[in-house]
Design a protein that fits this description.
Strands 5-4-3-6-7-9-8 form a 7-stranded mixed sheet, sandwiched between helices. Strands 1-2 form a two-stranded antiparallel sheet. It has 6 helices and 9 strands; from the N terminus they run ββααβαβαββαβαββ. It has one domain (52-216): Rossmann fold (3-Layer(aba) Sandwich). α2 (54-62) runs parallel beside α3 and α5 (150-161) packs parallel to α6. The chain starts with 5 loop residues before the first strand and ends with a strand. α3 (82-89) links the parallel β3 (72-76) and β4 (93-98). The chain is of the alpha/beta class.
Length: 218
C-alpha cells in the first residue's frame, strides 16, 4: 500500500472524455521518508497536487485550440497534469512541472491511462532559476496564485523561462494575488487580456473566475 488512497475520475474536456487518477480526498497525507517535508511541502498542503481543481479543467479546455506549432510549452504546478495531457494528445512540445514528489508518478500513470506517451517532466521549485532548463514560448498554470508570495516567485520564474516573444496563460478562480502578478509581468513587458469564465455549473455572472492571457513581443 502506498499510504494514500486514490480514485479514477472521468473528465469531459469539450467532446472528449479523459480518465484521471486522483487522490480520493483532500485529507490524504503520506510522507514516511520526509521527502515532501524536505521539499517544503507541509502536511496541510500535501494533498493539493492530487485534486482535480476546477481551474485545471478550465485550462485544459483553453488549450484545446491554442496554436502549438513551433512552440515550446511548459505547465507550472501541473499536479495531475490534465492540461499537459490534452496538449500531449495534440502533439505539442509540452513539458509538465511540479515540485511535489508524487506529481511525476501520477502524471506517468495518467498518460498511460489515456494511452499517451510519457510527458517530459521537470521537478521545478518556483524559486529555481536553473539555466539548463532553457526558455519557452508558452507558459501555463492553473490556480497557482493562491499564496501571497506566489506572485513574486512566479513573476521572477516567468521572467527567467519566457522567451522575448512569449505568452503566459493562467486560469485563476478569483485570487486577489493576481493583481500583483499582473503588475509584475507588466514591468517585464507583458500585456494582459482578461476573460471572465465560469469555473463550475453553479457560477453566475459576473464570474469571479478568470482566464489571464499575457503576451509579450507580439
Amino acid at each position: 500500500m502506498p499510504g494514500y488512497e486514490t480514485q479514477k475520475l472521468n473528465v469531459n474536456v469539450g467532446a472528449l472524455q479523459w480518465k484521471i487518477r486522483a487522490l480520493s480526498d483532500i485529507s490524504q497525507y503520506a510522507d514516511p521518508e520526509g521527502v515532501a517535508a524536505r521539499a517544503g511541502i507541509c502536511s496541510a498542503s500535501w494533498s493539493l497536487f492530487g485534486q482535480l481543481w476546477p481551474a485545471s479543467r478550465v485550462l485544459a479546455k483553453a488549450v484545446k485550440h491554442i496554436d502549438i506549432d513551433n512552440r515550446r510549452i511548459i505547465e507550472l504546478g501541473c499536479g495531475l497534469g490534465l492540461p499537459s495531457l490534452v496538449l500531449q494528445s495534440r502533439g505539442a512540445d509540452v513539458t509538465a512541472s511540479d515540485h511535489h514528489p508524487l506529481s511525476k508518478k501520477f502524471l506517468v500513470y495518467n498518460a498511460a491511462l489515456n494511452r499517451l506517451p510519457d510527458i517530459p517532466y521537470l521537478d521545478l521549485p518556483w524559486t529555481s532559476l536553473d539555466q539548463t532548463i532553457g526558455q519557452f514560448d508558452l507558459i501555463l498554470g492553473s490556480d497557482i496564485l493562491y499564496e501571497q508570495n506566489h506572485a513574486n516567485m512566479l513573476a521572477d520564474l516567468v521572467g527567467h523561462l519566457a522567451r522575448p516573444k512569449a505568452k503566459v496563460l493562467i486560469t485563476c478562480p478569483g485570487r486577489g494575488h493576481r493583481n500583483r502578478f499582473s503588475r509584475l509581468l507588466k514591468e517585464k513587458g507583458f500585456e494582459l487580456t482578461e476573460t471572465r469564465l465560469p469555473f463550475s455549473d453553479s457560477d453566475k455572472p459576473p464570474y469571479k473566475g478568470r482566464l489571464l492571457s499575457y503576451r509579450r513581443g507580439f
